[in-house]
Design goal:
By secondary structure, the chain is mostly helical. It is built from six helices and no strands. The chain starts with 9 loop residues before the first helix and ends in an 11-residue tail after the last helix. The mean pLDDT is 88.
Length: 183
Amino acid sequence: VCSWLPRDHEATACRLAGEIDEAVSAFIRGQGIICLLLGAFYAVGLTLVGLNYGAAIGIATGLMGFVPVVGWLVGTLVALTVALSQFGLVPLALAKVLAVMVAGTAIETAVLSPKLVGARIGLHPVWLIFALFAFSYLLGLLGALIAVPLAAATGVLVRHALSVYLKSEVYRGTAPAEPGGPR
């Protein structure tokens, strides 16, 4: 594809495409690691709580965590449903299951995602949250899936545009002074 680009812009376009590829790849690898860690956390936590099928529910919830919010929500609903059928309306048992699920999402949000995804793709966590919110609102589940990769690609392009601007005569002010001097 790079050979099809105008010769004057080939190097820049190919470099930007490479940076976008690196950012999206870092997101996918980071999110995959997060899913595996969360699956293990949920599986161990739910098993320790004594939930039937806790390991299977935990692993499935972790793997579904690739889709932000949706995976956790589905896993939590399944875990609470199994807890209700197993323990009945025992508040302590339901609270333990809910505590494991909330702890997992808190660990993901506060530690894992910023360290394993945000830092690698070069976006501030606030931008990641905004991207998830905006794309989820506009496109639903599909938006939640594509929000972070699109935000990462946009971040690469914005950083490039800023770099070009900061090197330009418009920013540096090397244009000749207007006749008559400043007013």
